[in-house]
């Protein structure tokens, strides 16, 4: 059993956008396993924007508490069981869990109590790439699937706008909506990404949100209005969605990228009265509340990926030393698709 | 048949709060009835806050267009058929319709095309006061009923906050929630109204929203948080609701009183991310989309009113000449319960 571990910790709170120097890697001894515990060697780390929320000094009401300086980060990860004092797990088992951002995770029987997308879970990847279970077949896929199907009640023929559509969640949401018979508009933050949305993902329309007032860009892309907005951005994006919403429209809100770097949250849309005038609803959610849909999600999305009807991109960093760069790159929007950090091998 | 009519018209657009001088009464001849038309002598006018929205130079996307200076106002009314060229209506019939703010209404077969709460409809008041069909058994009642039951999915044991709870809609919503087994907190804009909410309506708690930061006032009134917010105010009230919302909470939004006087809409709540962190939804609606619930609503609320379990107050003005004062008083919040204008007799 290895005696030594490395963990990525918050060094100092970011002031504005996260810098790699805000994070530090600390060494720590690996304790012996107690009864019920499992030692996992992490092989893949999921690099997700929501972690930014917990790097500030306060988190929104209802959310997990902030990380304290010096505290190890946590996040979704995949690894291999190296040792086990738990009869449910044996060495060699492939598992997913919430103790990422470290080389090894010692996971107790309370592993499942960490919030969000489940605790220690055995994986059977069959013929599929293991890291997909952090992306389109994992938390990213479930966020897209639950938001469209369960929250927004997507119907064939709906016109759907997906913001951050070149990202890990957005790219799956946009393609899933297409497969479900919707007309799909995607937006992203660069011409390259717009090109990706149009050519690689085959969306019906796409725009760069820097190219003008978002309300006008969206109106040009969807002249008849939209029925569903898949929102991971908030702020001016949400306001534009309401302006272009058809009566009876639905917003599935899974994040607020526009606000994660702000110490003081920016004001909300000034056009919320359109919820009344058009009978529109905004519903927030977290994927972790929809684990009962995970099997259906995996079955449907794995099918699309296997036969090539759904594309999936990855930006992969290597080794825990690169995890800070992975985080800052993802938060800057350098990625197309999922950002991952590969450990070992 | 009378040859002469009087109509309340927009004189000049209000700059800030509505003044009686912004409205003018104009005389007009009454035309002969064409085939299909009905002449109604109005007896009760419903004085509702939503009319303020159409007095500005623009209305929100999806809403009815602004009134133009010189244009007669419209609004819910009850009257008696005086003459009819329509086989569905006979002289003496009691009807409700959308052509209020005038002594007589000439209603064509397209009367039902005016948006909102239905067109020309026969009423059978039985033993109940006629004007209740503009209030607790009419549009106000349906707004309360649809918002709580259909939109917010009210459950027994829910803790519910009703803003503007001394008003026409809020007072019914608050009492209906009580009857349905909820714990109900009401807020209003004066100590007298708070007293009314506590003593007359028997709510579990009440506060004057001027008495401090609304988030703190609400937290004191509902220390365990709220499950449902019945919103006719928006703005700082909505932000306070989100701060105090329990996971899975619902907001039924039927209006935005805080904003009706503003030329430029105020920013929305800066804490919308709590929709995500707590899995909360905000749903806007108009009563007119829930006419299929009107019979159930009338049956349930008439029962409560008959046996005294629901209280109902009215502020009544007399004659079309007083309609401008009725409007300004209601918009200032002088009323407790429903504001009405009685014509004739």
Walk me through this protein's architecture.
Two copies of one chain form a homodimer. Chain A is of the alpha/beta class and 345 residues long. Helix content of chain A is 23%, strand content 24%. The first copy, chain A, contains eight helices and 15 strands. Chain A has helices at 139-151, 168-179, 191-200, 214-221, 235-243, 274-278, 294-306, 323-332, and strands at residues 4-10, 23-29, 38-46, 77-84, 94-97, 104-107, 121-122, 159-162, 183-188, 205-208, 226-231, 245-253, 281-284, 314-318, 338-342. In chain A, strands 3, 4, 5, 6, 7, 14 and 15 form a seven-stranded mixed beta sheet that branches. In chain A, strands 10-9-8-11-12-13 form a six-stranded parallel beta sheet, with helices on both faces. In chain A, strand 14 (314-318), helix 8 (323-332) and strand 15 form a beta-alpha-beta unit. In chain A, helix 1 crosses helix 2 (168-179) and helix 4 crosses helix 5 (235-243). Chain A is globular, with a radius of gyration of 20 Å. The model of chain A is unreliable at 111-118 (pLDDT under 50).
């Amino acid at each position: 059993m290895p005696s030594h571990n490395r963990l990525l910790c918050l060094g100092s709170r970011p002031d504005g956008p996260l810098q790699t120097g805000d994070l530090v890697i600390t060494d720590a001894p690996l304790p012996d396993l107690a009864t019920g515990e499992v030692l996992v060697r992490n092989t893949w780390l999921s690099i997700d924007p929501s972690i930014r929320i917990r790097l500030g000094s306060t988190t929104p009401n209802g959310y997990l508490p902030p990380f304290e300086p010096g505290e190890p980060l946590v996040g979704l990860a995949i690894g291999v069981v190296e040792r086990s004092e738990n009869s449910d797990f044996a060495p060699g088992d492939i598992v997913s869990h919430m103790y990422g951002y470290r080389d090894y995770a010692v996971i107790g029987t309370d592993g499942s109590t960490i919030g969000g997308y489940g605790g220690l879970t055995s994986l059977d990847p069959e013929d599929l790439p293991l890291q997909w279970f952090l992306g389109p077949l994992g938390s990213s896929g479930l966020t897209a699937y639950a938001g469209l199907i369960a929250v927004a009640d997507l119907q064939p023929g709906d016109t759907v706008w997906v913001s951050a559509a070149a990202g890990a969640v957005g790219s799956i949401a946009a393609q899933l909506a297409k497969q479900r018979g919707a007309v799909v508009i995607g937006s992203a933050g660069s011409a390259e990404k717009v090109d990706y949305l149009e050519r690689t993902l085959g969306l019906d329309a796409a725009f760069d949100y820097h190219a003008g007032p978002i309300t006008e860009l969206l109106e040009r892309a969807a002249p008849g209005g939209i029925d569903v907005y898949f929102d991971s951005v908030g702020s001016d994006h949400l306001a534009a969605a309401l302006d272009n919403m058809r009566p009876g429209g639905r917003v599935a809100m899974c994040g607020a990228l526009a606000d994660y770097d702000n110490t003081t949250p920016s004001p909300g849309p000034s056009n919320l009265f359109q919820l009344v005038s058009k009978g529109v609803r905004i519903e927030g959610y977290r994927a972790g509340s929809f684990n009962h849909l995970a099997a259906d999600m995996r079955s449907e999305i794995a099918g699309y990926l296997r036969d090539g009807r759904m594309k999936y991109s990855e930006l992969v960093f290597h080794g825990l030393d690169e995890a800070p760069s992975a985080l800052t790159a993802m938060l800057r929007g350098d990625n197309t698709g999922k950002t991952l950090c590969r450990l070992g091998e």
